[in-house]
What we know:
This protein is an alpha/beta fold.
Amino acid sequence: MAEFVLGCVQLGLAYGAANRTGKPSAEATSALLSRALAAGIRVFDAARAYGDAEARLGDILANSPATIITKLAPLAELNESSAPDEAVAAAERSVRTSLETLRRPHLDVLLLHRAAHRTAFGGAIWKRLLAYQKEGVIGRLGVSVQTPGEARDALGDGTVGHIQLPFNLLDWRWTNILGRFDHRPDVTLHVRSIFLQGLLAAGNPAFWPPIAGVDAQAVTAELSAAAQALERESPADLCLAFVRGHRQIHGVVIGLETVAQLERNLSLFAKPALTPEQCAALAARLPRLPEQLLNPALWPK
């Protein structure tokens, strides 16, 4: 059964469409991480691009048994004309900074924040990361993907050992992708965005972005009706049970800002997952919504 992976973007940034509390204080962050450790959570997901999330994890988890997944910087300073040596130097700076900020001798798991960087610049960045891995500086290497095409490409690379992708009960794009992981049992699969930045769990259509073809009120009502039909306590329970009902998924990344949110999600993780049959019936019941809703990067600003 997929484990609870604590997403840490909210610890470094005011993030999420349904986030009404903002970035937590240092004291609140310490309390949240301490409670997570006490509850048995051992995997934390961060990134260079998540504000000061790495620094906060380094302050609190440096001497803990936790596994920290982080992501290479987006390397926005590079462009198509950048030389391979320049790209490698930028990647090295990102790795060094993560090591220093997390206060660790090596990185447990490092993912590319941009899947294109696996092959960009003649593959120079990925080759350098593989060398780091051989030296013991990096444990597992992987890719954070945004699209099914990126996932297919990553699965075709035998050196990729970890993939993170966005997945939730409305996201029909991954129907033919998850089964491919059965042929790569060596790849760890984590999923994020199971609540779609909180929209699916909030139960409030006012939080939804205005997108053509999306009736937020109708979808919200349908999620509540489906939760009731499957005897789940809430849409949030339904969302998590659906994702955990897919055997290919090893970890579910859930971002939090408060201890209260952590406690609610811990209680949901204690409940059974949906069966494969229930997952299939639910996917068939829910509306097929446009990709613009499913990818927050495409939401109106």
